[in-house]
Amino acid sequence: MYWYDGKLIDSKQILLDADAPELCYGASIFTTMRVYQKSLDCHLTYWQAHCDRLNNSLKAFNWLQPDWEKLKQGALHLSSHFTILRMAIFPDGKEWITGRNLPEDLKQRQSVGITAWVATDSLYKRELAQHKTGNYLGSYLARQAALKLNAQEAILIDRHGNWLETSTGNLWGWQDGCWYTPNLDSGILSGIQRTHLLNFLRNNNIPVKENIWTQDFVSTLEAISYSNCVVETIPIRKVLYLDNWIDYPINCLETNIKGLR
User: Fold this and answer.
1) DSSP for 18-34?
2) Which residues lie in coiled coils (predicted)?
3) Rounded (5°) CA angle 240-241-242
4) For 141, which of 115, 151, 190, 206 is 20 to 30 Å away at the CA?
């Protein structure tokens, strides 16, 4: 079941023209939203923030605007069936919404953490990183490579080796009573959950800084985690960098990370 161009469709197939740019070039933008309490109006769903993300990319690419009422109508239909909605817009303004449910092991990941792999090959670079485009091949390949190494996430880097973000979310680090996250000038996506967490920390007078995650800085972190709108915040307990595993104890995050959920 999915929503496409104003219609709810009960099928696993979608009909596109053979020369459609979204098919040939991955020309689409999208946002992935977790619907809380089956309501788009719940403050944790961030409905308007997701629409703003789409709108900002549409304006940047000079694409046609969708029928925003159709988009919301489709999201309302699917939110009664799914917890997670992926809302995409094509260059011609047509909307496409698919749904899925939360990972079955999400609570376990939040509790015991995951392992990650640093994707050092330039093959895994994400183009137009400030936008969520349908051409997400770099992140997809990085995560697939990580899974083959028994890691659940990949950490993307720039040409200087600085850590940027994971294949699906934003990075957070903990050191000496302060939270850190890579700044936007590094060339990363301004995650909606990232923005929420920054506002939460600042509003509650919890120290937080945006900086560049050089190799020297990463080596000083006491613990790290990553965030996105679906999983909220998940600790990373081990990182495979080149041929070495780096351990990041999650016990120091047990108290502090709860405030980020």
Assistant:
1) TT-HHHHS---EEEEEE
2) none
3) 115
4) 190
Q: Of 100, 133, 155, which residue sits at a domain end?
A: 100
CATH of the domain at 201: 3.20.10.10
Q: Give me the residue label for tokens 């016990």.
A: 251
Give the pLDDT of the chain (261 residues) as one tens digit per residue. 999 999 999 999 999 999 999 999 999 999 999 999 999 999 999 999 999 999 999 999 999 999 999 999 999 999 999 999 999 999 999 999 999 999 999 999 999 999 999 999 888 988 888 999 998 899 999 999 999 999 999 999 999 999 999 999 999 999 999 999 999 998 899 999 999 999 999 999 999 999 999 999 999 999 999 999 999 999 999 999 988 899 998 765 554 555 555
- Nearest by Cα to 54 from 7, 96, 83: 96
C-beta separation of 89 from 29 below 8 A:
yes
